[in-house]
Design goal:
- The chain is α+β, with helices and mostly antiparallel strands and 731 residues long.
- The chain has 13 helices and 38 strands.
- It has an eight-stranded mixed beta sheet with strand order 31-32-34-33-35-36-37-38, sandwiched between helices. Strands 3, 4, 5, 6 and 7 form a five-stranded antiparallel beta sheet that branches.
- Helix 2 packs across helix 13 (699-716).
- Residues 1-8 have low confidence and may be disordered.
Length: 731
């Protein structure tokens, strides 16, 4: 089937009623004809979304065989009955498993042994998919919890130090408001304690008598950390900390050594830590470095050579961040007088992302040459002339991602996750004393997957200003460089988030149809360090969009790709990117898939009462108070810049209950696109009525969502059939 062999009779889209509504700021008035769609409970709105879904189904009905084929390929390649590698905490090995035909994971554990042989005691038990695990205890079965509910998602799990109680958070609407429940693991019964409307994140106190959790305000901003004492009314829960600045995000974690509650308050540019001694919670909170110092930092308590310190990952005179060692008493002094000892100096080529500690080692997460890596060094001698140099495990691929998966404080090993575009996820244990890797698992890809049949390589696309944009290009190895192949270009480009190399089973369905898959690491992301991020935010945000267009131009002239057969995909802030490039260069794309797209960003950020709106000021600027930010944003935000051109076929995919990017943004955008386009390509809105920001819940439902998006793009670029294998040109 070719890209033009679509349904001959395209249905008529549902008409969108126009109601003029003026939005005036800084002397500028924008007339918004579709703001009425914001009334979520309006029967007219719900009926409109349902009619849009019916229209989308009619437009894309002929893609159903392709969708079903892609879904089946994902399913057939996935080891459906699978389990994670057990991770030890105190006297138990914890793991999760999935079963064929079931949507959700099952949380389990088995007892651990202490024989005195450290190597043996920290070697996870062998567990085989589909084979019963002797002594297994099922803590939580997501399938049972989800039964009869339209949506199910867990927002956090925490087990007491003695292993007797499990706290978990459950969302049944997709709006990321969770209910906290506590289960007695010795009896299997739920305790009467039940806390509604909590946010992500849970932690028990070391003695198990209290559980800490986070609460959001009316704008969905996490602003309170509370403490619930088991067996007491929820109305008596203590507010440990409340943050009233609407532009600051609040979170917490328990320190690695389980001695302190670390409350972090911050934005993308500076932060503040308040710490609570968990052995003496009545003494209250202590501030480390005030936000007034405008330092972006993280803190972790550590004992070095018998003396208490904090390890700080910070950007004080260090754009890419560095690591310093500071004694607690120093924080009582003026910042200029404090003594900080450098542990890891600043490096323009290395971004320090964070750290944790075990009882013997410091574990660092760094980014070098765009790649996320893990480094370790002993705590002994830290900050002195005896400090050792960091070491890192060695891997043999150019493009990979290595993350810290688990570092239990008492453990002699740390758990690493590893993946690349061609290597399915692996789990390693890294033995700290020996510096050696132990492979514990590589995710099975069924159906005869062979990494040698694909190629992943780094290319560099020149931007208009001369900046070189890194691209990750993945393709079948047997494709000829003849300029005829279709491509999908994907990017995100915001919040210093990096699109790191990862193996995706679903992507094989695109590659096997001859599609060249390109990830554009555009400015605004974090792939090239802090400066790369800063060159794509606030009054430099347009670089994000022009980088994507320039990357598209480059890939279309690379000799691999037909420039008339390129589709673009992006989600959330990457969905804003999709809307922006649709306006900038609609002629370069055969199709655009915008997933939960932030396409009405200016309207949202101008209203601080909307969910998470004020938190966006540090990313985009504050158009409420700054006329220049308002003008600049209005020049690129997708909804305001729809223009009379021939837009490509566009699919906007959203969720009715999404709290991060409200459904109304893509709904308004699609209506404006349809009214304005001079072309004939279909523009559709697909709304998951029971989903959240990540779409529908359940793995099979997610696979069908992916299949829908991929089929929309693949059909548009004429790549519906799986290519036969050719070995003549395999590299």
């Amino acid at each position: 089937m070719t890209a033009d062999a679509t349904a001959l009779e395209v249905p008529v889209p549902p008409p969108a009623r126009k109601v003029p509504s003026d939005r005036t700021h800084h002397g500028d008035t924008f007339v918004d004809h579709y703001e009425w769609m914001r009334d979520k409970e309006s029967p007219e709105l719900i009926e409109y979304l349902e009619r849009e879904n019916a229209y989308t189904e009619a437009v894309a009905r002929h893609q159903e065989p392709l969708r079903e084929a892609i879904f089946t390929e994902i399913k057939d390649r996935t080891q459906e009955t699978d389990l994670s590698v057990p991770a030890r905490k105190k006297g138990w090995w914890y793991y999760s498993r999935t079963e064929e035909g079931k949507q959700y994971g099952i949380q389990c554990r088995v007892a651990a042994a202490d024989t005195g042989d450290v190597g043996r005691d920290w070697t996870p038990p062998e567990v085989v998919p589909g084979r019963p695990v002797p002594g297994e205890q099922i803590m939580l079965d997501g399938n049972e919890l989800a039964e009869g509910k339209p949506f199910f998602s867990l927002g956090g799990l925490s087990v007491t130090e003695d292993g007797t109680l499990l706290a978990y958070c459950e969302d049944n609407a997709g709006d990321e408001r969770f209910t906290l429940r506590i289960k007695d693991l010795t009896t299997g019964e739920l305790l009467p304690d039940e806390v509604p409307n909590v946010f992500y994140g849970l932690a028990f106190s070391p003695d198990g008598s209290r559980v800490y959790y986070t609460v959001v305000d009316d704008s969905w901003r996490p602003y309170q950390v509370r403490s619930h004492t088991l067996g007491t009314p929820v109305t008596d829960d203590d507010v440990v900390y409340q943050e009233d600045d609407v532009a600051m995000w609040t979170g917490f974690e328990v320190s690695a050594d389980r001695t302190q509650l670390l409350i972090s308050i911050g934005c993308s540019e500076y932060s503040e830590y308040r710490v609570l001694d968990l052995a003496r919670p009545d003494t209250g909170l202590t501030t480390l470095i005030s936000r007034d110092e405008r330092i972006l930092y993280d803190a972790e308590p550590v004992v070095v050579d018998g003396t208490a310190h904090y390890l700080l990952t910070h950007d004080r005179d260090a754009k890419n961040s560095m690591v310093s060692l500071v004694r607690p008493t120093e924080f009582a002094r003026p910042l200029a007088d404090q003594e900080w000892t450098t542990v890891l100096p600043h490096d323009d080529a290395v971004r320090v992302n964070g750290l944790t500690v075990t009882q013997t080692h410091l574990v660092l997460s760094v980014r070098k040459d765009t790649i996320e890596r893990v480094q370790v060094l002993p705590l002994a001698g830290l900050g002195s002339s005896d400090q050792e140099l960091p070491t890192e495990p060695d891997f043999d691929e150019e493009l990979f991602t290595c993350n810290l998966a688990n570092a239990e404080f008492e453990s002699p090993v740390i758990r690493l996750s590893y993946t690349s575009y061609l290597t399915p996820p692996r789990v390693y244990d890294y033995v700290l004393a020996a510096g050696s890797l132990e492979l514990r698992k590589e995710t099975e890809v069924r159906g005869g997957y062979d990494a040698a049949e694909y190629v992943a390589e780094r290319q560099w696309a020149p931007a208009a200003d001369g900046t070189l944009i890194p691209l990750s290009v993945v393709r079948r190895a047997d494709l000829a460089q003849d300029g005829t192949h279709p491509a999908v270009v994907y990017a995100y480009g915001s919040y210093e988030v990096s699109m790191d190399p990862a193996f995706l089973i679903a992507r094989l369905s695109l590659l096997d149809r001859g599609i060249v898959y390109v990830t554009a690491h555009i400015r605004g992301g974090g792939e090239m360090g802090r400066t790369w991020y800063e060159q794509g935010k606030k009054l430099a945000k347009k670089n994000t969009f022009t980088d994507f267009v320039d990357a598209t131009t480059y890939i279309g002239s690379s000799g691999w790709v037909d420039p008339a057969r390129i589709a673009a995909i992006g989600g959330s802030a990457g969905g804003l990117l999709m809307g922006a490039v649709a306006n900038l260069a609609p002629e370069k794309y055969r199709a655009i898939v915008a997933q939960v797209p932030f396409v009405d960003a200016l309207t949202t950020i101008l209203d601080p009462e909307l969910p998470l709106s004020a938190l966006e000021w540090e990313e985009w600027g504050n158009p409420i108070t700054d006329p220049e930010v308002y003008r600049y944003m209005k020049e690129y935000t997708p909804y305001e810049n729809v223009r009379p051109v021939a837009y490509p076929r566009i699919a906007a995919v959203t969720s009715y209950n999404d709290t991060r990017v409200l459904y109304v943004e893509p709904a308004k955008w699609v209506a404006q696109l349809r009214e304005t386009t001079t072309g004939t390509e279909p523009i559709v809105l697909k709304t998951e009525m029971d989903g959240g920001h990540g779409g529908a819940s359940g793995r099979y439902s997610r696979w069908r969502d992916i299949a829908w998006d991929y089929a929309f793009a693949a059909e548009a670029v004429g790549a519906t059939d799986v290519l036969a294998r050719s070995t003549s040109s395999v590299e």
